[in-house]
Each structure stands twice: as C-alpha cells, then as structure tokens.
Amino acid sequence: xxxxxxxxxxxxxxxxxxxxxxxxxxxxxxxxxxxxxxxxxxxxxxxxxxxxxxxxxxxxxxxxxxxxxxxxxxxxxxxxxxxxxxxxxxxxxxxxxxxxxxxxxxxxxxxxxxxxxxxxxxxxxxxxxxxxxxxxxxxxxxxxxxxxxxxxxxxxxxxxxxxxxxxxxxxxxxxxxxxxxxxxxxxxxxxxxxxxxxxxxxxxxxxxxxxxxxxxxxxxxxxxxxxxxxxx
Length: 232
Known about the structure:
- With 232 residues, this protein is of the alpha/beta class.
- It has helices at 14-22, 78-90, 96-107, 114-128, 149-159, 177-182, 210-225; strands spanning 2-6, 25-28, 42-47, 50-55, 134-137, 164-168, 186-192, 229-231.
- Strand 6, helix 6 and strand 7 form a beta-alpha-beta unit.
C-alpha cells in the first residue's frame, strides 16, 4: 500500500495533486501546529503577468494552536475579497466559465474551522480531478501524536500498514531511506516533471495555485498533468 502525508494547503499547485493521485491512502495533518509563514491558508495567482497572493484570514489566537484549532476570520468578508482578485485576473482566460463556479463554491464554503475550510476545498478538487485516493485525517490515527518528523511519519506508516511511503521532493533531506528500510517500508520522493502551459506571456510563472492551470488549460488537461512526475 502506497502512503503519503501532507499538511492541508489551500488550492495548492499541481505537485500536491500529483502526490495525492499517486498513492492509495493520503494522510492530512490536522493536529500539527499552524505556521504563519507557510502555505496552509494562502496561495498565488497570476494577474497581468505577475504573481500575487490571496489569503484566508484567521482569527488572532495563540501561535501554539494546531491547525484544527484555528478559526477563519469571517468578519473581514474575505471570501468576496478573494473572488474579487481572482475574477478580473482570469475572466478572459479560456476556461474561466468552466473553472470559476468551482472556485467560487470552494471560497464561499461556510466552515468556521480553518482545517475544515481547507479540507472542503481539497475534497472538492479531488472529486473534480477524478482522484480516488482515500484521505485520512491524522488525528484519527492511533499513534503517539507527540512524535515528531520522521518518527511520526514512520509510526503512521506502520499503523496504516504501508509498504511504500512517498513524500514531496522537498523532504529529501529530512528522511532516510535506510531508516524506512529497517521498518520494511520503501521511501520514494515525487519529483514533478517540468510542466509549462501557455499563460499568454513570454515567461512562464511556475508554482501557482492549481486554479491558474485550470483557468488556462481546463479540467481534462489538468488531469493529464497528474501523471507527469517521476519517483526518485
């Protein structure tokens, strides 16, 4: 059984969806500490050829709270603000009419809890892209949740009886194939192929939210990109 573990990210880039599609089971962390400078509640879109950021605002609270304990700041009317950024940026793109209602539904979901808000978006896009992978929320797994980093990943792998663990390429320096092998688990890293599409400009801007790809190439072509990677 192939397993991956990731944080929840809001409308992440194609690499996230490739990883989700590559495994049998995908664990999403809800009980790890929220990090301010990460990409959990924000992402990038393209406007007039340059990348800009949209963000889900969260209520002021302790910096030590887990993601599942953070709340969305609805009093800021952020949903319309996000849509007011996305709509003019993509209204003339080829697949705007196909894509915008989906993004609008995701942004307008009324979850107060930050994790549940993002989890809703992940499930909606998972369905849209035809990904059948089972998603498991980390806090539901019976392990010692005080474990950190590689030890926690190994504990989850063993509890879920994974034969192979696939991680994003960015974790290559964090995990040891030898340590995983000791537990009879193969460790691989997913490396996205060079993917470029016509953004109606000379220089391609990579690593944008999946919404950029959907707006320019549509759902069917985005599905084709799901398999354009290699395991190393």
